Amino acid sequence: MLTSNYTGSTKPSLYNDAVMLNDLSRDELISRERALLERFAIHKEAGLALDLTRGKPSPEQLSLSDELDAMVGGEFRASDGTDLRNYGGLTGMSEARELGAELLGIGAEDVIAGGNSSLTLMYQYLLHAWLHGPLDTKTAWRLEPGPTKFLCVVPGYDRHFTIVENLGFELLNVRLTDSGPDMDQIEDLVSSDPSIKGIWCVPKYSNPTGHVYADNTVKRLAHIPKIAGPNFRIMWDNAYAVHDFDDNPPVLANIFSHCETAGTKDSVIQFASTSKVTRAGAGISFLAASQANRDSFIKTLGIQTIGPDKLNQLRHVRFLKNIDGIRVLMRGHAAIVKPKFDLVVQHLTDGLTSDSIGSWTTPRGGYFLSFEAPKGLATEIVRLSAEAGVKLTPAGATFPHGQDPNNSNIRIAPTYPSLDEIDQAMPVFVTAVSLAAVRKLLQSSEKHA
User: Which residues of the chain have pLDDT under 50?
Assistant: First the structure.
């Protein structure tokens, strides 16, 4: 059961310690199904068209940064006098790099400030590592025999998986535990297979569960490159570094510091952005790495672009100022987002606790929460919800190739809908879960009749 690094209740799986439904007779299950179908029909008649698929900021969140538009105000020069309207500045303006450094807890010299998408930087880096080598052409992953393999912590972020799928890598699942990825499993895999070249990590408020990696997990990850094959890379996507719901949030250990201590600084590549801090489609992305990694990557980057949008970087620096300015802004986000998460959890608790159906996380920050349905039912729950007008992330999306071996994980994204829309959508979801679970038990009872 996933319970670490978040507060609130988690409920047992139907097929682990269910009590209420399993105690019902077949006639009682038929009666329960009939009542659920009546409720489901009412939901369908409501004609809902609600979308809980992706973690987008709501319009209210985006409006918190409307002052960005006035930040340039005809003054286009950086503090050192550089005219930011012109070409140049491949690694971003210095003030933007300093902002990224504060966000990631490292030195500005280790940071590249890019365009609006950290996902683009991730793809560019991995393509560079495969084609040209993370350090030089002799280290290119493509030169090694056999397939290039990558570790994917599951459940996880579908876009991460799609990047390595697109590059033709073989993907290996790693279990998510209470404290982060299963380190015993990782150590066993990399020590026996040098073709494994990296791992995806969302270390704070993991997508979709909301977990925060424990200190010892971060420390052990920093030592993984010592037992892995050559040129192993930890892809450290700290997308939710400042997306806390309260003023006393969990603190993520500094991976760079642990890697420096372990002598593996060249093996970690960090990413962050302001995409869900200011404007989702018009923020700043950051890549942080050792000098050896940066020097190699910048050669490839310089072929693709002369430089990022430095005026966008300028307006962000003037608006956010520093990490304290970011935290003040994020308290405004929390005031909008946390009540939505609370409402989702309340519906799940009220609707499913008595029947002991499924389990869910209650994160302390981030953009998602994770629902673990009874084994084999996620696809049916998503289908039923859509039939009643509530669109969810496809079942399996949180696993490589869209294949959840248990067909049980469902990602819920509450940020974009209004509270009223969530209040309409969640009863549909709860009904779909209950109906799918009752039908499963009825099918099982028929087989044993």
Answer: 1-19
